[in-house]
Amino acid sequence: MSFFFEVLIGGLLSGVMYSLVALGFVLIYKASGVFNFAQGSLVFFAALTFVGLREHGFNSALALLATLGVMIVLGLLIERIVLRPLVNQPQITLFMATIGLSFVIEGFAQLLWGANVRGLELGIQDEPIEQITTYTGMNVSKFDLSAAGIAALLVTGLALFFSRTRIGRALRAVADDHQAALAVGIPLQQIWGIVWAVAGFVALVAGLLWGARNGVQFALTFVALKALPVLILGGFESIPGAIVGGLIVGASEKLAEVYLGPYVGGGIEGWFPYVLALVFLLFRPEGLFGEKHIDRV
Amino acid sequence: MATAARKSGDVVLKLENISLAFGGVKALSDISFDVREYEVRAIIGPNGAGKSSLLNVINGVYHPQQGTIMFRGKQRRDMDTHEAAAQGIARTFQNIALFRGMTVLDNIMTGRNLRMNATFIEQAIWVGRARREELENRRKVEEVIDFLEIQHIRKTPVGRLPYGLQKRVELARALAAEPSLLLLDEPMAGMNVEEKQDMCRFVLDVNEQYGTTIVLIEHDMGVVMDISDRVVVLDYGKKIGDGTPDNIRNNQTVIDAYLGVAH
Amino acid sequence: MKSVKSALLGLALLGVAASAHAQNEQFIPMNGYWVGPYAAGGSGIFGGFIDYINMINARDGGVGGVKLTYEKCETEYNNARGVECYEREKKKGPTGATVIHPLSTGITYSLIDKAAADKIPIISLGYGRTDASDGRVFPYVFPLITNYWSQNTAKIKFIGMREGGMDKLKGLTIVNIYHDSAYGKETIPILDAQAKKYGFTVKHIPVPHPGNEQGSQWLQVRQIKPDWVILRGWGVMNPTALKAAAKIGYPRDRIIGVWWSGAEEDTIPAGDAAKGYIAAGFNVAGANFPVIQDIKKYVYTKFKGEMEDQTRIGSIYYNRGVVHGIVTVEAIRKGQEKFGKKPLTGEQMRWGIENLQISEARLKELGATGFMQPLKVSCMDHEGGGAVKFLQWDGNKWNAITDWIQPDRELVRPMIEQSAAAYAKEKNLTPRDCTKEAPPA
Amino acid sequence: MLYREAGQFKASYATDQQIFPIRQDRIAVAALTALAFVIVPLVADQYWLSAILIPFLIFALAAVGLNILTGYAGQLSLGTAAFMAVGAFGAWNFVLRVPGMPLLVAFALGGICAALVGIVFGLPSLRIKGFYLAVATLAAQFFVVWALTKFNWFSNYSTSGVITTQRMEILGFAFDTPRAKYFLTLTVVVVLALAAKNMVRSSIGRAWMAIRDMDVAAEVIGIPMLRTKLLAFAISSFYAGVAGALYAYCYLGTVEPEGFNLDLSFKILFMIILGGVGSILGSFLGAGFIVLLPIFLNTVARPLENLLGLSLPPGLMSNLELIVFGGLIIFFLIVEPHGLARLWQITKEKLRLWPFPH
Fold first, then answer.
1. Which end of chain B is more exposed for a tag (fewer CB within 10 A), N or C?
2. CB contact under 8 A, C71 and D167
């Protein structure tokens, strides 16, 4: 039984890592209806820039600040150069544009920093916490717990940002109804720029944590694929959905792999979350926290 | 108009005690009314009275929680869109529901889809039945196009048409199905006087030439009183009046409701 | 007709036509990958390869007076693009492309038929089709030096050595953590055969691509408590595995990786978690070999090096690229012995590779003693070596901890021949009779 | 003045409903077909045939398939490569396991296997729309590749899971040269593309577009939602499946499940977005663009690199290629979101008037 809980807890903690990536998607989709496939590339770019700057003699704090600046500028640029000219185009066109964007970012990142694979030490060891192991026999990683803490901080921060700041409130208004927001004089493009910058920041946090976990390398872009089932489960527009969806995906895929996998030859983690999400959608097409849309005719 | 002189037949559609709610919001409560063959039946009422919902119940887009629908002798809990179409119910929508990516001709041709039985394989090879059906139905569609006088825009994508013409194309699509019961949801909304006159003429022509029963939602009282045989009045999802135009004109509840809403 | 065609081609090929080829050149396409998830491996290996070629040109004026030329083509590790690159490059140079290194198992598979038809030999160093080691069925494919099955038997030997004898393997449990793909699955049958032979238990645990999340797999390992773990990873899967092993407290010096799991790129991202980890290799790391020094001297001092980041010179991947260079150049030398000092054709090159012998003495001349193993290729045996060295990561670099360990040929060879025979039957090929092949000149 | 339909009066509905109603179009299509069947095989060398034209045709076919589903029926799918994989492995197994199986029948059966898988993964489309559906189709993408890798039966127990296609023979004629393979591919693609064109101008095509443009209205007209959507999934997957079989047999010769990855699905989606959503012609234009662009960039980049000397960092050109590729996609989307087919249509409309301004 303790093994079951170990798998469950490990899964939940992995799920937090998925949620971190999913958050970036949600922010942008909520504000501008763009399904931003380049989020994975942004994660990669952020982590690579951070370690690249450190290699060039920046200390961690400075590198963090500088990377944050770069991500914000990048976010603003994307909004200005790619998305603004495409405003009012069908969603699929915007989606395609973000795939094109991911190529540009990936090429640019490697052009700038080279194809080297790098390590990233955040000073938190990815090792079991001994006390927990001795008392319960379960392994819980310090790193995973810290990541969960950071995710919690981030979500709280975002919640405060949305509810307490003027920009945040404007943003919510935009998310609810573009036209109405425009009508009451909220500058849409400015808001979109801010959202992209915030998404850049979220990408940086995800990039640092994932980079510390797997190394800073091109494969960081693949974390986006882990975030997609989270999005279906949680709904594209819901921040709590991203968190809860992440937890569900993380826990269920681990449990499935450990308990179901052996019967079918294993390796089912790759598709299991998608099938789970699919089945879930059959019962609730708008996701966990998504809003139900009634077709009016 | 000599509506009284026109023959109105047996009851073809009968709604009894229909109630419909979305979540907690009641859209229709306990509505009963009937439609006779060959008549023009109008539904009126202020905005949000549940008129469109009623049409949606009739052709199966919405499924009422209570009540029964009798159509052509068959009683049922609710309608199914496909069945409704197969039974000869066609309709137009308040906010034009044309297929914007398609041409006028293709839009109207979809109205005849139920009458085309060739399998997709025959259609892919474009032989025999598929080809014959395309031609036969095209002929029918051209009749409708002639009837509604929209020959000149046949090959135009509907998205490029002005509002009035779009409404007409939507009517054409409904007519192409050769319906026995036609549901029109504000066919004249947003039109200028001239366009309205045209539309009135088309509706009456349909009714007279093809013997099509018509259920119509309209805001323009003049039009309603002019062309309909009987009128149902809804307010806040309830039926507050039912009768001939003259009856309705003198119905105090209706007058109150209208005046109350208007001001 | 001809002019229409050349006009069409000219339009696309732009400058290529303009650069006329001098006649005394031999062309080697460099179809690799410098972008994408595997760019670190691609850029390292082709970096070493190209540097070696340039060094030979600069130091010796080519091979036997024939200058070696090359052109890069980006395959993105993608089969379709790999085929396009091959088709594009195969006619270049006075004798066409003379040998091809696809550096991708998938692309290798896609090229086997085409290359045989075009008479261009394929060298797949440490990847590709294992059963192509049977040269009778695959005359144009050379999985030189070692293949996956050979290295796997060497790994079991190594475990036996560590346990104090092959008889001690009995009763052990070994977990095989593999990339869930064609590449990853390839060693399952040989491991099963060995488990039967030596009496150990083997459990196969797949990791779905890309492998950036392995919590559940390593929890399974924790539950199984194996004596050894064999890691058959690729790309990001490797550091993630090491991190996950650290997370469950599994000792890293009991994890043995394949050579695609044993480069700096696989350990550095894992940080401290990689310390003690062991991997098989067919070349070693280090820049102190004379051959590497020559590259620095003749190439880098003239600012012509391929590596932007010169610290990577002497890394596992870079040195593997140099091995690519050495076998290619030595095969050209061999071919020239028979066909004269002129640009070889693909067919002649094939003969050169098939009769390639690199002795210990020759390695010394090349400045590569201990850098790689001696090689003896033949019509029967397109592998030519088979041994691996085990390397251990000390937190900073890879150190060799064993000498060359030979594979279990009695086990591997019949499996190769069986698999090759099945392929020949499926494709309706008649295997060559090796006794009738021309002997080495 | 050259491209004019003035003076071409349609005396009957039959002539008006021809596949290409304008005479110049008919001539152009006939000329193009003749060019593809006669001139190209004479002129093109092996490189053009086997590295460009064959993959172009195969990808175009897959794009036509995806366009039926996404462009006409409006169901966004990110799993095209999976259906190609099913087609490739299906056809291979039919040839392997059924003695005397004719090649073309095997291709068709491979396509039908893909269609069946497509129906299964199309079922959720009844409840799920838009991006939710798109992400859901990823389930097909990952599941199919997993299943083909996992169950060795599909690759006849080859240790690596890679399959090598059998010798191709139709009625005793061996298709083993690039030219012969080109003919085979071209024939299959032309026939299926014409069939697709016929379908989209028939009632089934109108039903698809109706569902795409306004599903409620379509239902009210009596278009059966379930059948129409599933038929779109089935036919689309059939096309992808046949394309997959051709990809294995006529192009690569050897395939592995991982070759049919998400990247390939995206690539085909790119083709229809850039070529034109809801246009058969656009599928071909898009396929040509996506196949040729990287090759063009590469062929331009490499000599440039040699010209500039080796002082450039080695990855530079590869990375620049990637940036330019992505950049051009964004550029095209911004300039013409409706794709190359729309650009072509606009050109035609201009040509109709040319040389007069109005």
1. C
2. no
d(CA D97, CA D303): 48
Write the CATH number for A174: 1.10.3470
Question: What's the structural domain count of chain A?
Answer: 1
Give the closest-approach CA distance of A137 to chain B in angstroms. 49
DSSP state of C388: B
Strand partners, C393: C398
Whether A292 maps to a domain, the answer reads no
D-chain residues near C109 (CB < 8 A): 162, 164, 254, 256
Number of neighbours of residue C297 by Cβ within 10 angstroms: 14
Backbone angles phi, psi at C425, to 5 degrees: -65, -45
Domain presence at residue A289: no
Disruptive mutation site among B62, B107, B123 for chain D (greatest number of D CBs within 10 Å):
B123
Q: Residue D254: which residues within 8 A CB-CB, separation 6 or more? A: C109, C110, C112, C113, D162, D163, D164, D165, D248
Reference D278, options D113, D75, D92; nearest CA is D75
pTM: 0.91
pLDDT tens per residue across span D133-163: 887 788 899 999 999 988 888 988 877 778 8
Mutate to test the interface with A, among C209, C216, C260 (most CBs of A within 10 A): C216
Taking an 8 Å cut-off on Cβ atoms, the answer to whether D160 and C419 are in contact is no
Instruction: Determine the residue of chain C that is closest to D56 in CA distance.
Output: C80
Task: Give me the domain span that covers residue A12.
Answer: 2-283
Touching D: which chains, 3+ CB pairs < 8 A? A, B, C
Contacts of C423 in chain D (CB under 8 A): 164
Phi, psi of C206 (to 5 degrees): -80, 150
Amino acid in position A169: R
**Tokens coding C37:** 């998830």
Residue D41 tokens, joined: 């095989």
Domains (ranges, CATH) in chain B?
1-88+179-263 (3.40.50.300), 99-174 (no CATH)
Cβ separation of A111 and D323 shorter than 8 Å?
yes
pLDDT digits (tens, 9 = 90+) for B26-41: 889 999 999 999 999 9
H-assigned helices in chain B: 51-58, 81-86, 104-110, 120-125, 128-147, 163-176, 193-205, 221-227, 245-249, 252-262
Q: What is the ipTM of this complex?
A: 0.89
B215-261 pLDDT, tens digit each: 999 888 888 888 899 999 998 889 998 999 988 888 888 888 776 54
Q: Is A297 on the interface with B (CB under 8 A)?
A: yes
CA distances from D46 to C79, C89, D168, D250 (A): 18, 12, 18, 13
Nearest CA in chain A to C265: A117
- Residues of chain A in contact with residue B52, where contact means CB-CB under 8 angstroms, are 297
Contact present, A257 and A269 (Cβ < 8 Å): yes
pLDDT, tens only, D304-347: 766 665 556 667 777 888 898 899 889 888 888 788 888 888 88
What phi and psi, each to the nearest 5 degrees, are found at residue D255?
A: -135, 155
| Domains delineated in chain C | 23-146+286-385 (3.40.50.2300), 148-281+391-416 (3.40.50.2300)
**No. of H helices and E strands in chain C?**
15, 13
User: In angstroms, rounded to a whole number, what is the distance separating the alpha carbons of residues C35 and C32?
Assistant: 9
Helix (H, G, I), strand (E, B) or coil at B117: coil
Instruction: State the number of CA atoms in the 13 A half-sphere of A245 facing the CB.
Output: 36
Alpha-carbon gap: A51 to the closest alpha carbon of chain C (Å):
11
CB atoms within 10 A of CB A267: 24
Chain D contact present for C14, CB below 8 A: yes
For B112, what's the count of Cα atoms within 13 Å in the CB-facing half-sphere?
22
Half-sphere exposure of A190 (CA within 13 A, CB side): 9
A128 and C247 within 8 Å at the Cβ level: the answer is: yes
